Structure formats: structure tokens, C-alpha cells
Amino acid sequence: MSAFTVTATDGAARAGILHTAHGDVPTPAFMPVGTKGTVKGVDPEELRTLGAAIVLGNTYHLHFRPGEELIAELGGLHAFMAWDGPILTDSGGFQIFSLRDTLLASDDDGVTFRSVYDGNAERFTPELAARIQTQLGSDIAMCLDICPPAGVPRPELEEAVRRTTLWAQRQRDLPRAPGQLRFAITQGGLDLELRARSSEELVPLNFDGYAIGGLSVGEHRAPMFEATVHAASFLPHDKARYFMGIGDPEGVIEVIARGVDMFDCVLPTRTARTGSALTWEGRLNLRNAQFARDPRPLDEHCACPACTRHSRAYIRHLVNQQEILGLRLLSLHNLRFLIDLVGQARQAIERGAFESFRADALTRLET
């Protein structure tokens, strides 16, 4: 059986089901980020209650702390973090190449860099990234790729595309954990010709799914969405498409409109830790004095623990007093808000009303 089934389309937008060893994931799907084996401040049971179907872990960080051997010894990443649903693990490529001041050397064999933990020189190869993820036992393992920042010269983008394809070829048939899927990552920045080249090189390798990488790294929104459309147009209809690193409500809606099935971002929990809530009124900065006596919930239509039990005034008090509960409640709310938003998008696609949903949602979010 294919790892992905398209169940409905509305224009370019798609609803589907991603089939994994630890259960099916309805798509479009937002993946909360559990970089180090935890979504910051949120218990796995709370994630389930919020409606999360799949979470993300990071190969780079888990490799260095506590190490894939220890995690494997304790039953794999699912057992280690007490999450029995699907897990996607990033390859570590984004961490390596985004921390450019730690990068020492990159060649066709792999990449050498300084660890952010102790400064020691370390080396990742495509084979090592695959082996780490096999030991972690994730449901979806991402290929090691090269993710250059926005604005680099075209020759650097060309080299990233070439080497990303080379590394994907080496990872395609390496050993996997039982039932583990492997996704390739397309590159090319905002260069449409390179985007096409990357997809055309990777699609014949017949991976289980494909990510659109190298976007949402500092470029302007309009060309980013144009590159998304172009990249998606070269990817197979019957394979999952994953936009890496987008999580603001407007951005999520826009990439769904362009045929993307999966996305992840630290934004909901990171925004919460700054004292802000995602709502249909836009972002609310709960540190603001205007909420000091506000008896309303963060969002009238949200069923998260913060909104069903507490007022804006109370949450503002917790945030301003640096009480951990305030940041936890905001994290729960922001995750639920995005998960609900994506669920509403799916329902709109299924009934053939996505464009009206999109227009209404974007108008409301702009207020």
C-alpha cells in the first residue's frame, strides 16, 4: 500500500491520509516540534487531547543529547518520550547549515561542524544521519540535505541542489527501522529553474514522500509562495508533500492552498514563551495592560484548557509574574489554535469550499 492517499482536492489544495507504522495521519497536518524529545512544556497526553496526530524530533540534538544508542536501549524514541503516535525526525541538516558560524567544511562525503553543545568538531554524513534515525525508530526519516540561507549566490544554490541529490541517492536504500518511511528534501531557494531541477532529480528515486526545503529561511513571502507552487508542481500527486518550517496561521493556509500536506514550526510554543497568543483577532500580547481586567477567554471559539477555564486577565497575571503555568497555557492554546485551523481547512477541502474558507480566514486573521 502507498504511504499516502489523496482523499479530496479543491483546486491545488489536498486532503489525504499519511499511513505510518504508528497510525494514520489525516492531512493537511501541522506537526508540533519536539526537537529534543519533547514539545516544550506540553505532556504527550496533552498533545493527544489537543488533536495532534504526529510530532517532530530532531536528529542533530538527539544524537548529541542523550544519544541514539541510549534511546534505542530504552525502547526507541516512542517509548523514550511516551508518545505512541507517529514521529517524524529531521535529519539535522537545517541545524548544521543554519548555524553557519559552526560550519567547518562541506564536501561530497559529508559535513564537518562544531557541536553547539561543547564546540568539538563533529562530522555528519548521509549514512550517519540515516543510521541515527534508524536507531531512534521514527516513522518518517528525513534525508540529510544542504539548506543554504536566503540570498546566497546562484552557484551556492546549484551546489546545494547537486549535493542534496547525491546524498539522497546514497540514503535511498540504507537500512531502516521497521515500517520507517524515508522522505527526500528538494532544494533550490527562490530559483525556479533550480527548484525544477531538484525535484526532477529526486522524484525518479521514488522516495515515500518529498519535502520542500530551503524556504521560510528569511526570504520575502511572495516569492516564497511562488517557489512553493513551482516546487509542488514537479512532485508526485500520490506522495506526501512537506513544507519545512512554517507555522504562522496565514502561512499555513497559503501553503495548503498551494498543494502542501504537512508542515512544522516552533512558532506556536516559541510565541507562547514570549507571552503571546494566536487568535482570530491576530496575535495578542498578554503582557499588554489592556488585558489586565479582560474577563474573556483568549479566543471565544477555542476549546483548549486555557480558553475553557481561564480569562485573559488571569493569563496576563501569570505571564507578568513569570509563572510557568502562564506559558504552558499559552503553549496549549497556540497548538490547539493551529491544529483546529488545519482541521477546518481539511473540512473545507472535503466539501469543495476551500477558497471561501481561505478568503474568510485570511480576512479575519488580518483584523
Task: Describe the overall structure.
The chain is an alpha/beta fold. The protein has 2 domains: 4-265, TIM Barrel, CATH 3.20.20.105; 266-367, no CATH class. Helix content is 42%, strand content 20%. The protein has helices at residues 44-50, 59-64, 68-73, 77-81, 93-98, 126-136, 154-171, 192-202, 221-233, 249-257, 267-273, 305-309, 312-320, 324-350, 354-366; strands at residues 4-10, 13-20, 23-27, 29-32, 55-58, 87-90, 103-106, 111-114, 121-124, 140-142, 181-186, 209-212, 240-243, 262-265, 276-279, 282-285. The strands form 4 sheets. An 8-stranded parallel sheet has the order 4-14-13-12-11-10-6-5.
Structural class: alpha/beta
The CATH top-level class label of the largest domain:
Alpha Beta
What is the domain tally?
A: 2
Give the biggest beta sheet: 8 strands, parallel
- Based on CA atoms alone, the radius of gyration comes out at 20 Å
Secondary structure blueprint with pairings:
Blueprint lengths: L3 E7 L2 E8 L2 E5 L1 E4 L11 H7 L4 E4 H6 L3 H6 L3 H5 L5 E4 L2 H6 L4 E4 L4 E4 L6 E4 L1 H11 L3 E3 L11 H18 L9 E6 L5 H11 L6 E4 L8 H13 L6 E4 L5 H9 L4 E4 L1 H7 L2 E4 L2 E4 L19 H5 L2 H9 L3 H27 L3 H13 L1
Parallel strand pairs: 4-14, 5-6, 6-10, 10-11, 11-12, 12-13, 13-14
Antiparallel strand pairs: 1-2, 2-3, 7-8, 8-9, 15-16
Summarize this entry quickly.
With 367 residues, the chain is an alpha/beta fold. It contains 15 helices and 16 strands. The longest helix is centred in the last third of the chain and has 27 residues.
